[in-house]
Amino acid sequence: MPELYDVAAIGNAIVDVIAPTTDEWIVEQGLAKGSMQLVDQQQSQALYSKMQAGVEASGGSAANTIAGLASFGGRGAFMGKVADDELGRVFGHDMRAIGARFENQPLTGGPATAVSMINVTPDGQRTMCTFLGASVEFSDADVEDAVIEASKIVYLEGYLFDAEAARRAFAKAAALAHGSGRMIALTMSDSFVVERHRAALLGFIEGQVDLLFANEAELLALFETNDFDQAAEALRQRVKLAAVTRSEKGSIILSEGERLTVAAEPVEKVVDTTGAGDQYAAGFMFGLSRGRPLQQCGKLASLAAAEVISHYGPRPLVSLKDLAESKGY
Q1: Residue 263 has what DSSP assignment?
Q2: CATH classification for the domain delimited by 5-327, as one of 3.10.580.10, 3.40.30.10, 3.40.1190.20, 3.20.20.370
């Protein structure tokens, strides 16, 4: 089958509500700063009533990555579950408006479309409380076989490890991808996800994953160590390719026998770190799908991450394709 997509992603379909806040407010609400916490619908609504005025935007980690890929000029597809409600329709419209494929049937008679309450402190750090709603109803029946088989890279969102049905979808997607000679990529998503599912994640990484994305905290949590170099070497022995982000320290790219360092792209002011890892993955996979050298993939990744942390919201506000061309990337 001919390759129709650079990346096909499977993830939680979520609408984000993003608002500024203070460190004191985070403490008052009993939240762990910088974390992603799962809440039920009642808790989500209660938190919303206490938040400052914010903005609503279609989000979800893997969906944000597909938005970034599209901004680079890449061809992407997204698979995820929304409800047959207003937020679900908004999410679907937003994905199709950027040129991405999103054709999963909405859920009827079940929970509402997922929503994430994101509170951003003055240092740009985001603290997320997520009601997963309809997104956890995604199953192997929602995996589009032909789309997986027609994608250069199949990208899986670690947050879905919280749902058993989604894990079965991961297994199906991995089997289809490898059967067609495609690359499987996984983002670990959050250190709390790693702590909840360490054994399952390690098993999936060692048996199925070709490309792994992680930040420094997630990597250290995965191998239960405070030694970054030790953890990086342990990871390099388990996957063919990995990219690990380290905030202002940039990132490292690990492959067989090679460790590359990529500097962070300068940012005048960090406004909101929501989506930084998602856009890093977008730039990296766009470069990889187009046959770019690994160092250039890292530069595209850093460029996309820098753009998204310079404003509120998890998706690019300018053309990443034009931005990359202006930088000579």
Answers
A1: P
A2: 3.40.1190.20
pTM: 0.91
What is d(CA 19, CA 51) in angstroms, rounded to the nearest whole number? Answer: 7
- Total residue count of the chain as it appears in this document: 329
User: Could you tell me the end-to-end alpha-carbon distance of the chain, in angstroms, rounded to an integer?
Assistant: 31
> In the beta sheet, which residues pair with residue 118?
18, 128
Instruction: Note down pLDDT in tens along the chain; length 329 residues.
Output: 567 899 999 999 999 888 999 999 999 999 999 888 889 999 999 999 999 988 888 889 999 999 999 999 999 999 999 999 999 999 999 999 999 999 999 999 999 999 999 999 999 898 999 999 999 899 999 999 999 999 999 999 998 888 888 889 999 999 999 999 999 999 998 888 899 999 999 999 999 999 999 999 999 999 999 999 999 999 999 999 999 999 999 999 999 878 999 999 999 999 888 899 999 999 999 999 999 999 999 999 999 999 999 998 889 999 999 999 999 99
- Rounded-to-integer distance, Cα 15 and Cα 3, Å: 30
Given a contact cutoff of 8 angstroms between Cβ atoms, the answer to whether 65 and 281 are in contact is: yes
Instruction: Report d(CA 218, CA 158) in Å as an integer.
Output: 11
Domain ranges of the chain: 5-327
